[in-house]
UniProtKB/TrEMBL annotation:
UniProt xrefs under Pfam families: Memo
Family named by the database record: Belongs to the MEMO1 family.
Protein name per the record: Protein MEMO1
Xref: HAMAP family: MEMO1
Domain of life: Eukaryota
Length: 267
């Protein structure tokens, strides 16, 4: 029997970090990470969408350690064991884990925000599949007890609108002026609905406009977790702190990705 520790490498370092993702979304994401309090946070749940493998449920990592350019992050094996016991989770392969960027893009930020307490916290990465409404509700209910604990921080990974022919999404309402203004209006409509913390309204918005929000299912899980906690009287509010677009679309050949950063606070 080998006691080899399974590590997930920082597979997108040097490509996505510098040349792609952070160039566009970095400054926006920082507005959310500025809210993190490392003195109370002991566990960081990171929910990211699956971009590469078809998944109808949620999946957990086979790794014990996630490497980052700053320092290694340790997966909370106790919470993982509790989640396994529910029978609701699949195990992703290490290859799937390293191919996926949605969770990894948040790891250096997490490491930086928690740097002053780096030996005192663990992470709980969860890859979220293309969940049905009832599954979003089920996972939301399951994770709500963890969300209620002030020592747990939840990070939800998502972009907003992917607009352009290469994304096969070209919704345009001319009454808002230039294309990029129409995109902003569409995104901010969705952001306003998320701030209401009503999962059904968000689902209806997605059905109506088909906005290409890649983390719609992780967001749906969070909204359902909040709805569950509100039943028991826990008050929470969500507010967006920043919004950005990778470029301003003005004609049909253009394309852009939108980004938004927000924070959920429990009272």
């Amino acid at each position: 029997m080998s006691n080899r520790v399974v590590c997930r490498e920082a597979s997108h370092a040097g490509s996505w970090y510098s040349a792609s993702g952070y160039t566009y979304c970095g400054a926006c994401a920082a507005h959310a990470y500025k809210q993190v309090d490392p003195t109370v946070t002991r566990r960081v749940f990171i929910l990211g969408p699956s971009h590469h493998v078809p998944l109808s449920r949620c999946a957990l990592s086979p790794a014990e350690i996630y490497r980052t350019p700053l320092y290694d992050l340790r997966i909370d094996q106790k919470v993982y064991a509790d989640l396994w016991k529910t029978g609701l989770f699949e195990r992703m392969s290490l290859q799937t884990d390293e191919d996926e960027h949605s969770i990894e893009m948040h790891l250096p930020y997490t490491a930086k925000a928690m740097e002053s307490h780096k030996d005192e916290f663990s992470i709980v990465p969860v890859l979220v599949g293309a969940l049905s409404e009832s599954k979003e509700q089920e996972y939301g209910k399951l994770l709500s007890k963890y969300l209620a604990d002030p020592s747990n921080l939840f990070i939800i990974s998502s972009d907003f609108c992917h607009w352009g022919q290469r994304f096969r999404y070209t919704y345009y309402d001319e009454s808002h002026g230039e294309i990029y203004r129409s995109i902003e209006h569409l995104d901010k409509m969705g952001m306003g609905i998320i701030e209401q913390l009503d999962p059904m309204s968000f689902t209806n918005y997605l059905k109506k406009y088909r906005n290409t929000i890649c983390g719609r299912h992780p967001i749906g899980v969070l909204l359902n977790a909040v709805a569950e906690l509100r039943k028991s009287g826990l008050e929470m509010n969500f507010s967006f702190l920043n919004y950005a677009q990778s470029s301003e679309c003005r004609n049909w050949q253009d394309s852009s990705v939108s980004y938004a950063a927000g924070a959920l606070i429990a009272h």
